[in-house]
Every structure is written in C-alpha cells, then in structure tokens.
Design brief:
The chain is an alpha+beta fold. Helix content is 55%, strand content 16%. The radius of gyration is 14 Å and the shape is globular.
Length: 139
C-alpha cells in the first residue's frame, strides 16, 4: 500500500468532511450546498475505500492525524472542525464501506445538533439507535 497515496486521500477526506460540517452549520440538510458537499465527501470516502477498507480520522495534538502523525499541512482548513470534535470528546471517527448519503447526512446533523450537545458516547449511542454501523465514533 502506497503510504503517500493513503495520506493524500486522508487529507482530502478531512478537508471535505470539514467543509461539509461548515456548510451544514450554515444551511439546512436539503440546501444545494450541503447536498453537493455531501456528495463530494462521499466521493472522497469512495476514493479512500479503494486503498483501505476502513478510514480513520484520528485527532491528535489538535489536528487530524494519520498513523499517529498530525496532518499539519491542512491545519487551517480543518481547525474549527477539530475544535468542535475535541469539545465533544471525539478522538477518532471510523468510516466503513457501505456508508450511504443518508447515514452521512444524519451523522453530520448529530454532530451539528445545538440542542442535544452530544459527546462521543452520545454520538455513538445515536448511531447505534439509527442502525448506522458504517460510522464509529471513539472517545
């Protein structure tokens, strides 16, 4: 497995996921910007699934990380997303093959929910209740 390629797809995914969370904080789920960014994020996940069956977005030292190495090159692009995840005590998000647009949208809504203020355990509990096995949140 080409480690440079793996690192590249992780960085692209982290950027797209961060943009999706930003768009979702501004617009409702059916807004064209959110729909387009959802598809872009899924496309980056599909590209990543071609090189590995599970994709881990780890958080380390206030950054997304790959195999224990922070991805400082994308720091400014993903900074607000990482901060939001740290407040929720999320240390890792694992995406698995089979993730649907509906499941990704529901997960983003859970992350963005300003009423429930779910932490990592609460997020995983909501994912389990919704029978979403293609996303795992770790504390």
């Amino acid at each position: 497995m080409d480690q440079a390629l793996v690192k590249h797809v992780i960085k692209v995914l982290a950027k797209n996921f961060s943009l999706l969370l930003t768009e979702s904080s501004l617009y409702p789920p059916q807004h064209p910007n959110v729909v387009a960014q959802t598809h872009q994020t899924l496309a980056s996940l599909e590209a990543a699934f071609k090189v590995m069956p599970e994709i881990y977005l780890d958080i380390l030292e206030g950054q997304f990380a790959h195999e224990g190495i922070p991805l400082y090159e994308i720091k400014h692009t993903v900074e607000k997303t990482v901060q939001m995840l740290e407040v929720k005590e999320v240390k890792c998000i694992c995406f698995k093959i089979g993730l649907t647009p509906q499941h990704l949208s529901l997960f983003v809504q859970m992350l963005s929910d300003k009423i429930k203020h779910l932490n990592a355990e609460g997020l995983q509990g909501e994912l389990d209740k919704a029978s979403i096995a293609s996303i795992i949140v770790e504390k």
